[in-house]
Specification:
Number of domains: 1
Radius of gyration: 17 Å
Strand order of the largest sheet: 1-2
Number of strands: 2
Largest sheet: 2 strands, antiparallel
Helix content: 25-40%
């Protein structure tokens, strides 16, 4: 929706993608957060060392008691499906600002760094996504229309 709104230049569509409009409209926004003292105080496994860590919780916005800091938490692997969306938004001028939820992007950075499942795993980050992420994640948006980084070599196995 956000990319369509930006491509069409439609401020109404763009506004609907802004998390402030409705914090629970998109599950990705309701699942991603930055660990705070309040999360530590809920006693679901976070310690003070976690404060400031971008995190994911299966129902964080609606039922934070179900948060689980373990990397093997139920459905945490869903992050692999969000890598492409995060990269597309990062590379589209104005998209991250319009999305207005930095914890989503911070968590995907963490997820890509930590997740070690092979691309052949059903829930692993697929080889194409990882290659694109590695090639373009740190690209400067201002250069995307003129001097994009060299495209990654992709092999299909």
């Amino acid at each position: 929706m956000l990319l369509a709104g930006l491509a069409l230049g439609d401020p109404e569509i763009i506004a609907r993608a802004n998390r402030d409009e409705d914090p629970n409209r998109f599950q990705e926004d309701g699942q991603t957060f930055v660990v705070s003292q309040a999360d530590v105080d809920r006693d679901v496994g976070y310690t003070s060392d976690w404060i400031g860590t971008p995190e994911w919780g299966i129902r964080h916005a609606s039922d934070p008691s179900r948060d689980d800091p373990s990397w093997g938490a139920s459905y945490r692997w869903i992050g692999s499906a969000m890598v492409g969306h995060a990269l597309a938004a990062r590379l589209t001028p104005g998209a991250m600002e319009a999305w207005n939820w930095p914890p989503y992007f911070s968590y995907i950075d963490r997820y890509v760094e930590v997740d070690g499942r092979p691309a052949t795993d059903t829930n692993g980050i697929q080889a194409f996504q990882r290659s694109m992420w590695n090639a373009y994640r740190h690209a400067d948006q201002s250069d995307m229309n003129t001097a994009a980084p060299s495209a990654p070599a992709i092999s299909v196995e």
